[in-house]
Structures are given as C-alpha cells and as structure tokens.
Amino acid sequence: MDTERGHKIQAMFDRISPRYDLLNRLLSGGQDMRWRRKAVAMLGDLQGKTALDLCSGTGDFLQIFRELYGPDITLYGADFAYQMLILAGKRHKAKNDPGLVLCQADAMFLPFEDNSLDAVTIGFGIRNVVDRPKALKDILRTLRPGGKLVIIEPSIPKNRLIGIPFSFYFKHIMPFIGGLISGDRAAYKYLDSSVTAFPSPGNFVRLLKEAGFTDAKACPQLFGTAQIYFGEAGIHIEL
Q: Which pTM value belongs to this model?
C-alpha cells in the first residue's frame, strides 16, 4: 500500500479491531453471517480445494469454510490490518488448524501465484481498497480457470421508502452506536462515507466484467441494503 489514504484506512481498522465483530453483528442486525453463508454457497463444492478470504478481518468466512468442509479445504486469510490478523490468529489457531495460513497482504498486490486458488471471498472490504480495478485484476490472476469470487458490500436501496431511512441510519445512527462501543466515532463516519462513495451495483458489476470476470452479477439482500457480487474466472483456451 503506497498512498496516504491507504495507510489511514489501515490504521483505522487496526484501532477498531477489538470490537469489529460485535459491531458487525449489531449494525447489520445479525444478518452479516447469513449473507456470508449464502455467498459461500454460491461458490459451489470446494471439497479438497483452496480458498482465500481477502480483507478477512478476524475470519468470519474462514469459520464458515471450516464448518462446511472441516480439514478438507486449504484456507488462506489475508488482511492489510495487522491487528485484525492477530485476532484471527487467536480465534482460529487456538483450534490447531494446520490447513490455515494467515498473512498480511495488500489486495492490489496479492502474494499468491497465478492460477493457484479456487475461490476468493471478500466481506465488507473491497470498498476500502484504494484501487479497486487493480485489485480485481490481481484476484483474477490468482484464480484457476473456473474459480469464483464473491464479495459482500452494503448498498443504498433504489426504493426511496427504504433508501432514505437506510441512509439516515448509516449517516447518523451507525456512527453513534459504533463510536459508543468502539470509542472511535470517526471510523464509523468514514464507513458511512465509504458506502455512499461505492459504485452502484450495476457499475460494480461492470468493474468485475472489465477486470475479466465472466457471469458477473449482483444479488441484492434485505431489500437492497446489501449486495452479494459474484464473478467467475473464465476458461483459458490456448490457440
């Protein structure tokens, strides 16, 4: 990561890491884990395969993978916030999981070989990446042909009856609750602005396609207050 904005975001997530999971549950009304399970189901059968949870935080996706596949999947968790990885290590390594590797990594410069992964998940993280098109292209590079990417992000509903109160919640209520629990209200004001600035579902699907993903789509959740984005690495045909 080589920008001032990127370093500020990294430091912010390090600061809020101790209360991050609790706040995710509270601020999503407990829906975030349900969305994660739905996203993992979209990846298909990963028995005996390799998956990366990028922007992994403390490893919610990693937990779901282990619940589904036990030791029969190789897992990587990567995040740019070191304190998040410390918490992920305490959460998962305590279970003596030899098939899990945690690493600090920048989403734009992934430390994985070409065509080495079968699936990549990102939960509430891609909007914090400074150069999203670059990150998407690097994710595609690491995926084997037929490999899949799923991303979960909040979104502003098109329906004004839902969108207006949702925006009010993100702008006023969420920073208050987040600040009260985490002691860092500024971080949750940033999260509001990051959701507002994130591309619309249609525009983000376009970014996925421009990066080279096939079958790219957005699947709205809870009246469009969140989206599960999906993309697949195309089959490479040698001529």
A: 0.88
Tally the domains of the chain. Answer: 1
Q: What is the CATH number of the domain that holds 123?
A: 3.40.50.150
What phi and psi, each to the nearest 5 degrees, are found at residue 87? -65, -40
Q: How many helices (H) and strands (E) does the chain have?
A: 10, 7
Residue with tokens 């949870």, as numbered in its chain: 53
DSSP annotation string for 158-202: SSHHHHHHHHHIIIIIHHHHHHHHHS-HHHHHHHHHHHHHSPPHH
Using the predicted structure, report yes or no on whether residue 59 has a pLDDT greater than 60.
Answer: yes
CB-CB contact of 77 with 59 (8 Å) = yes
Instruction: Determine the Cα–Cα distance for residues 53 and 135; give it in Å rounded to an integer.
Output: 14
| Domain enclosing residue 131, as ranges | 4-157+200-233
C-alpha distance from residue 116 to each of 38, 76, 82, 144, 239 (Å): 24, 11, 24, 6, 22
**What span, in angstroms and rounded, lies between the C-alpha atoms of 157 and 58?**
28
The reply to whether 182 falls in a domain is no
